[in-house]
Amino acid sequence: MDVLIVGASVAGVATADTLRAQGLQGRIVLLDADPHLPYDKPPLSKQALKPGWEDSKGWLRPEAHYRDNGIELVLGRAARALDAERRVVTLDDGTALSADTVVLATGVRARRLPEPSMLPGVFTIRTWADSRALRDELARRPRLVIVGGGFIGAEVASVAAELGADVTIVEALQHPFQQLFGPEVAAALASRHTAHGVRLRCGQGVDRLEGDGRVERVVLTDGEVLDADVVLLGLGAQPATDWLRGSGVELADGVVCDQFGRTTRTGIYAAGDVAAWWNPVTGVHERIEHWTTAKEQGTAVAHTISGDERGVGKVPYFWSDQHGGRLQFLGTSEGHDRSEVVHGSLGSDEYVVLYSKAGRVIGALGLAAARHLMRYRLLVEQRARLAELEVAS
Amino acid sequence: MKVRVDEDKCCGFAACLSVAPKVFDIDSDQIAVVLVDGELPEDLHACAREAAEACPTDAILIEE
């Protein structure tokens, strides 16, 4: 069996490696529009923005790994169309690649502003090249305006402030992360920005970016103007599915999959940020943009292809490094009706917050508290009853 | 057997700490550290391997 994997980030590489580890004899082709040796994305908005970062630290595997395992890399070539019936992928240079099995792992694309605002000096971070170019800008200690205070925005703000840039975050909500983590935690996280010299302009949208040949100003919806040498957009991302339109593979918010990574067409699978897998616990298709989920799904798809339906774990996990503190999250906070601090305090630099819904634990957030957070993993996985927890404590 | 942690890969998930508490700890940066200098005693080999297997970011490197 020949397998073509479209997308050579963490999900795609995990699929390739797992297939080989299982003894798959056929060809494995790993295709990506990015010309660089497959690399890890989490550092792009963190360590890789600091001077002295070596690219080889970010490689998912050393170059020899692909050769040694018979994984053919086709890099710098974008997939343009999929023929789901014949399982043929057409590339941007007109080449057609066919396989018995196709895995869709094209990830997401960063949201942008309308074209007139996308001036030189305006960045998104999704690729090695994005991160590299922003690193060079940050070395000049610019006036940096970050649009959107989510994870990418907060991580870049933190590195940029550390490197001496003048940083302002523009955020639509009252505080960044308000919907995700609730108002108390959001306020606590916001105060960490302020404490590290990052300004916040909250409850504000961006009307447009202006400048003569390069960005110079950010015009907010209330008319306020912020001077900027560099602008970073942290506006979230959209699944890279344009090329799949009309292919016959069902798309919703991402590629619709069952709980084992099968799309609606035989022989075609999807994994990682682009995929919306059926979640048997919540009873909906969920597209999760976490590194660990991508890796798990990439591995699980390889098992599904080999006839072993394993699926993925029940507890999504992500981490984010902000102002010298590592934020970690287990499970979900979606739809939570209660949150409580179970370790440390929100006013300090170390805490754990438990999120619950209808009396059951659904998620746990930790700041600089990996050891304590670990103890709640099982409770989140079991959706433990809050009442029993209180009795126990 | 020797064990190393790749600090740039470690995401502080702490699976290693639950599986092999005699081999790993988590430092104040929430990054795993190896508690044993040099050769790992034989009775800890199995749990160290299990920890490497459980690590979500493959940050534990085992040199046999």
Overview of this structure, please?
The complex is a heterodimer of chains A (393) and B (64). Chain A is built from ten helices and 27 strands. In chain A, the strands form seven sheets. A five-stranded parallel β-sheet of chain A has the order 3-2-1-7-20. In chain A, strands 9-16-10-11-12 form a five-stranded parallel β-sheet, with helices on one face. Chain A has a five-stranded antiparallel β-sheet with strand order 23-24-27-26-25. With 393 residues, chain A is of the alpha/beta class. Chain A has helices spanning 10-21, 63-68, 128-138, 151-162, 178-181, 183-195, 291-305, 370-374, 377-382, 386-392, and strands spanning 3-6, 28-32, 71-75, 79-83, 88-91, 96-98, 101-104, 108-110, 122-123, 143-147, 166-171, 199-202, 206-210, 217-220, 225-227, 230-233, 237-239, 251-252, 254-257, 268-270, 275-279, 284-286, 317-322, 325-331, 338-344, 351-357, 360-367. Chain A folds into three domains: 3-109 and 237-305, FAD/NAD(P)-binding domain (3-Layer(bba) Sandwich); 112-230, FAD/NAD(P)-binding domain (3-Layer(bba) Sandwich), CATH 3.50.50; 324-392, Enolase-like, domain 1 (2-Layer Sandwich), CATH 3.30.390. Chain B is α+β, with helices and mostly antiparallel strands. In chain B, 23% of the residues lie in helices and 22% in strands. The longest helix of chain B is centred in the last third of the chain and has 10 residues, at 45-54. The model of chain B has no long low-confidence stretch (mean pLDDT 93). Chain A binds chain B through residues 40, 42-43, 47, 57-58, 291-292, 295-296, 317, 319, 324, 326, 328, 368-371, 373-374, and chain B through 8-9, 11-14, 17-18, 26, 28-30, 56-57. Chain B: InterPro entries: 3Fe4S_ferredoxin, 4Fe4S_Fe-S-bd, Fe-S_cluster_ET.
